Amino acid sequence: MTANLVNVLMGGVFHAAILFLVAAGLQLVFGVQKIFNLACGSFYALGAYTGISAVAYFTGHGGPPILFVVPLAAGGLAVGLVGLVVERGLLRFVYDRDETFQLLLTFALVLMLEDVIRLIWGSAPASTGGLYLAYGQARLLGATVPVYNLIVIAASLSIALGMGFLLTRTAFGRIIRAAADNREMAEALGVDMRWVYARVFTLGTMLGTLGGALVIPATAAMSEMGIELIVEAFAVVVIGGLGSMRGAFLGALVVGVLRSVAISVYPELEMLLIYLIVIAVLLWRPRGLFGAATA
Amino acid sequence: MATTRRDFLKVAGVAATVGAVGFPAVARGQAKPGVPSDPVKIGILAIRAGIAAPVGQAGLRGTEWWVERVNKAGGILGRPVQLVVEEESTPKDTVERYRKLILQDKVEVVIGGISTGVTLALGPVAEEMEVPWLSWDGTTQKGVEETMPNPKWAFRSVDNEVEAIVAGQLTPKYFKGVKTVAGIGNDYSYGHDCWETYQAVLKRYIPDVKFVLELFPKLGVTDFTSHIAAIQQAKPDLLMCSFWSGDATIIMKQAAAVGLFKSMKGVFTTAGGVHDSLKKEFTPEGLLLGYNTMYFDDPKGSPLLKQFVRDYKTKYDGYPPYECDHAYFNIESYKAAVEKAYATAGKWPSKVEVVRALEGIEVESLSGKRSWRPDHVQMCNFYQGVTTHKNSYDFVTINPIEVVSTKIAMKPAGSKLIEWINSWKI
Predict the structure, then answer these.
(1) Which chain A positions have a beta carbon within 8 Å of B216's beta carbon?
(2) Superfamily classification of domain B5-158+304-379
(3) Residue-level pLDDT at B293
(4) What pLDDT score was predicted for residue B28?
(5) A80-89, A247-256, B13-22, B52-61: lowest mean pLDDT where?
(6) Which residues, including other chains, have CB under 8 Å from residue A53's CB and lie 6 or more apart?
(7) Among A82-86, A129-133, B201-205, which is the least confidently predicted range?
(8) Smallest Cα distance from A130 to chain B, Å
(9) Can you give the pLDDT at residue B4?
(10) What residues of chain B score a pLDDT lower than 50?
(11) CATH number among 3.40.50.11060, 3.30.200.20, 1.10.238.10, 3.40.50.2300, domain B162-292+381-422
(12) Domain map of chain A by residue range?
C-alpha cells in the first residue's frame, strides 16, 4: 500500500519537476516581457535533442557513462543561447505590437523549430539508450525508484531555490522585478531594458532547454514532443497564476501529482481532471493561486 | 479550381524535384512492342511529419530501393519508373493531393497511405477517380469493421488488429498460468481496437482471464512513470502494450527502471516497428514482441531480404522496419500485374486490366510471398517471438520466431471480427 502510494507520488513529482522548469521559463518571460512564449515547448525539444547529441559525443569519446549528466546539462544549457538569438533577432521587433503578433511570431517559431529538429536529427525517435539506468535504483518505503528521477527532482528543486535567490536577493533580480512591475519607471531610473530583455529571455529559454535535456535519459525524443508540453505548461501557469514563479512551482506540483493520482485511481480522468482544475481556478480565482503578476 | 501562388510553388517544387531525381541514371530500356517509351508515373503518398514520420520514411525507402533496382533492369516492360511523391497529412489535404496526382501529374497508379484516418477517406475517392490505389498500411475499416466490402479500385492493407490477434494466439503458448491482464495503448482507434481484439482472443483460450486495468494515454505522451505506477498497483500477471512508436521505447525504459517485468509478463504487439531502439540494457528477455509483417533478422529470410537489409544498413545505418515491406510489395505487385495483363493484351494494359490482374496476384516481396486477396486486402505473414539478448546487435531480437499467416489470423472477407473470433474451434 505505502509502496503504491510512493510510486504514484514519485511519478507525479518527477513529471512536475520537468514541468516546473518549462513553466518557470514561460513565467519569467511573461512576467518581464509580457510575451506568452508558445515556443517554450520547442526549446524543451531542442534541449532534449542537444542533450542526446552531447551525451553521444561524450560517451563516444571515452567519457565514463556515470558522468553523463555533465555533458547532458552542459548541452542543455548551451543550446539555451538560442534564446539570445531569437530575442535579438526577432522578438525585439514586436514588443510594441499587439499581443496577437507576439503569439503568431512564437507560434511560427514552434513550427520552424520542429522542422529544424527534423532536419538536424531526422524524424526517428532518438534516445540516450540505457544510460537512464546507470545510477541504479533506490528503495523508498518498499517502492523502487530510479535514482536518476531523484537527481532530476533534486536539480529542479535547486533551480527553483536558485531562481528564488536570484529574484529576491540579487541586484539583477531586483531589476527584473522592477521591470516586471513598471517598465517605464525602471527605464526612467536608468535601466537598459534591451539588456534586461535579452538576459531574461535567454534565461527563460535555458530553463526550458535544460528541462528537455534532463528529462531525456528517462524517455525518448520526438520532434513534436514540445507541442504536447505546451498544453500542460499552459495549465500550470493558469493554475499557478500568470507571471508568478511560486505559481509555476505550485502549479507544476498540482498538475504532476493530480495527473499521477488520476491515472492510478480512474485513468479516464487523466487529462480531464487537470482541465477541471483550470476551469475552477479561472472561475473562482482568475488570477491563479499566486496571480499577483510579479516575476 | 483557381491556381493560387502557393499551389504553383508546390507544383514548381515537385517539377524541380522530379527533374533532379526522376531518372537516376536509367539505362533507357528497350520498350516492349505496344508499350510507350515514356516513363510510367507512379504517385506515392508518404507521411513526412509528426509521430508517424519514421514509418512514412521507411515506406519511401523501400519504394526507392525497388525503383533503383527495377530501373537498372530496364523498368516495367521497358518503361522507366518515375515517382511523384506527395505528403500524407490530414484526410482533407491528402485527398486533395491524391486528386492532384491523378489530374495533374497523370500517374498510372497511386501507392501509399498509412493512417487509417486518412485512408478511410481515400477509399471512396479512389473509387470515384477510377485509378488504382494500393495502400501501404491503411485500411478502410471503421474500428474493426470493413466499410468497403467490394471496392473496384482500392486495395487495402492488412487489418490493423491482426497483430493483436496473433499476440492473443501466442500468449497462452508462451505464458502459462496467466489469470489477470492489464492493457496500455494509445488513445485513438488503433489502441482501442487492438485491446478489444486481444481481449476477445485471449478469452477464447483462457475463459476465466480477468482484465484488471486499461490505460489509454494520448498519442505523443513521453512520460509513463505514473502509468507504470498504476500498473504496479493493479499487479497483473501480464501487460499487453500496442505502442508502435517512440512511446514503445519510452515505456520499456521506464518499466525497466522500476523492474516492472520482474513481476509480470509482457506482450508488445507492434513495438518491433522500432526494434533497433529497444536496447538490451533496458529490454528484458522473455517478452513477446511483434515485428508486424517483416522481420529483418529472419535466418530463413530470402536472398532478397538479406540484400535489402545490407543495403539499408549501408545507406541509413539502421535496420529496416516492416513498413519497407508493405511498400515494396505494393509497387512490386503493380509491376507484376502490368506484366501479367500485357501477356494477354499485347500492349500496355488499361487501368481496369491492371486492377483485374492485381486481384489474387502473388509476388515475391522482401518478407517472402505476399498477395492480394480477391476482395483487395493484403495477405502476408506476421512475425512475433520471444525477446532474446543472444545476437550481435545492441538491441533485442526474437527467438523462437513465430510466423503466422493472415490466412488464419485475419477475418475472412465479409465477416464481422468479434463474431469470427467467437466462432473459432479451440
Answers:
(1) 267
(2) Response regulator (3.40.50.2300)
(3) 95
(4) 53
(5) B13-22
(6) A75, A121
(7) A129-133
(8) 5
(9) 47
(10) 1-27
(11) 3.40.50.2300
(12) 2-284
Asked whether residue A292 carries a pLDDT value surpassing 80, the answer given is no
pTM: 0.88
Q: Which of residues 212-271 of B touch A (CB under 8 A)?
A: 213-218, 220-223, 225-230, 232-233, 245-247, 249-250, 253-254, 256-259
For chain A, the average pLDDT equals: 91
> What value of ipTM does the predicted structure carry?
0.86
Q: Which residue of A8, A129, A220 is in closest CB contact with B229?
A: A8
CATH class of A2-284: mainly alpha
Cis peptide bond upstream of B320, omega within 30: no
The whole-number pLDDT of residue B9 equals 43
> In chain B, where does the domain assigned CATH 3.40.50.2300 lie?
5-158+304-379, 162-292+381-422
B141–chain A nearest CA distance, Å: 25
Q: What is the 3-state secondary structure (H, E, C) of chain B?
A: CCCCHHHHHHHHHHHHHHHHHCCCCCCCCCCCCCCCCCCEEEEEEEECCCCCHHHHHHHHHHHHHHHHHHHHCCCECCECEEEEEEEECCHHHHHHHHHHHHHCCCCCEEEECCCHHHHHHHHHHHHHHCCCEECCCCCCEECCEECCCCCCCEEECCCCCHHHHHHHHHHHHHCCCCCEEEEECCCCHHHHHHHHHHHHHHHHHCCCCEEEEEECCCCCCCCCHHHHHHHHHHCCCEEEECCCCHHHHHHHHHHHHCCHHHHCEEEECCHHHHHHHCECCCCCCCCEEECCCCCCCCCCCCHHHHHHHHHHHHHHCCCCCCHHHHHHHHHHHHHHHHHHHHHHHCCCCCHHHHHHHHCCCEEEECCEEEEECCCCEEECEEEEEEEECCCCCCECEEEEEEEEEHHHHCCCCCCCHHHHHHCCCC
The 10s digit of each residue's pLDDT in B159-175 is 999 999 999 999 999 99
| Contacts with A260 from chain B: Cβ below 8 Å | 225-226, 229
Residue A260, CB-side half-sphere exposure with 13 Å CA sphere: 27
